[in-house]
């Protein structure tokens, strides 16, 4: 702000000096014309005519030198003045510059700045548009909404083209690793398998897999019925115990968590999930790692962190 004021003061000073030097130039030019109007004066004593002509030429030369000097002064002050960018033409808006009130309100100056910003934005937009047009992505060019949605729903080929033997071998390997877990294959329907996983002496988990992809988890108490009367597996009835229903919810969250964070290999999410389930083997023994109590609202610590699965109440989780 101070720089602007100083610059304005400097410009005003230059204008004042330029006006003074212009007046001086006008005076010296007038002297030249007056001298030319008077012409060569007649010789008074009629014996030195050549001498009067010499005097005239000498005076004329002096006046011209004065004109030259004053002209240089004017030119010097004109060159030292800084051109003001707001004097460009803005259509009808330029009439604002003629209003003396704009000196107080700065309306015209603000309008000019806005116009310049707008022009610059247009230039940048044109450059960006040309760059984007020259680097268009194929996926945004060709794929329509329906095709794109279909592609997004499709699973990676490694989940679909997995051989049954590979799935069996992987499940056998996984069943050996976590202690305190008992596996039982209940049913196989094509790529879909239903497993019964018993965690210590705590609860039973019904786990539905498509190849190695976990699709449904249901946690029930050890003494709860897992089959309908006709002998088919019950995949939909929730446990009658609040504790098991809470663990079912957390287990589904764990399935989503591990499936999204370890989606590169199909068996890794299942492996992490089984290790997470193993942390429930002492559900009714271990106290909460935060508050140190066993029960909270009549429930044991039913929540486990996905990275560090230690016993924790729902209300105590960080
Ligand atoms: Zn607690």
From TrEMBL:
It is found in: Nucleus. One of its GO terms (cellular component) is mediator complex. Signal peptide: none annotated. Pfam families: Med27. GO terms for biological process: regulation of transcription by RNA polymerase II. One of its GO terms (molecular function) is transcription coactivator activity. Its main location: nucleus. Keywords: Nucleus, Transcription, Transcription regulation. Belongs to the Mediator complex subunit 27 family. This is Mediator of RNA polymerase II transcription subunit 27. It comes from Ciona intestinalis (Transparent sea squirt).
């Amino acid at each position: 702000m101070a720089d602007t004021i100083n610059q304005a003061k400097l410009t005003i000073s230059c204008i004042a000096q330029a006006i003074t030097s212009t007046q001086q130039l006008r005076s010296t030019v007038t002297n030249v014309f007056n001298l030319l109007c008077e012409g060569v004066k007649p010789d008074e004593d009629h014996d030195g005519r050549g001498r009067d002509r010499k005097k005239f030429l000498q005076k004329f030369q002096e006046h011209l030198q004065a004109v030259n000097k004053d002209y240089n002064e004017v030119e010097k002050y004109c060159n030292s003045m800084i051109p003001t960018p707001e004097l460009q033409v803005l259509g009808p808006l330029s009439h604002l510059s003629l209003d003396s009130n704009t000196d107080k309100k700065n309306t015209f100056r603000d309008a000019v700045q806005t116009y310049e910003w707008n022009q610059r934005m247009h230039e940048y937009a044109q450059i960006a548009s040309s760059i984007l047009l020259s680097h268009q992505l194929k996926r945004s060019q060709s794929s329509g909404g329906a095709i794109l949605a279909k592609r997004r729903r499709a699973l990676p080929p490694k989940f679909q083209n997995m051989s049954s033997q590979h799935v069996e071998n992987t499940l056998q390997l996984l069943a050996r690793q976590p202690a305190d877990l008992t596996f039982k294959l209940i049913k196989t329907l094509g790529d879909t398998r239903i497993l019964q996983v018993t965690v210590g002496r705590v609860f039973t988990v019904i786990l539905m897999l498509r190849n190695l992809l976990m699709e449904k988890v249901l946690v029930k108490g050890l003494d709860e019925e897992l089959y309908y009367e006709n002998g088919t597996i019950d995949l939909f009835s929730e446990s009658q115990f609040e504790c098991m229903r809470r663990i079912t919810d957390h287990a589904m969250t764990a399935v989503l968590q591990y499936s999204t964070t370890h989606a590169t290999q199909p068996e890794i999410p299942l492996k992490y999930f089984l290790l997470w389930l193993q942390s429930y083997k002492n559900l009714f023994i271990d106290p909460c790692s935060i508050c140190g109590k066993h029960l909270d609202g009549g429930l044991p610590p039913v929540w486990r962190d996905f990275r560090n699965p230690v016993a924790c109440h729902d209300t105590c989780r960080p």
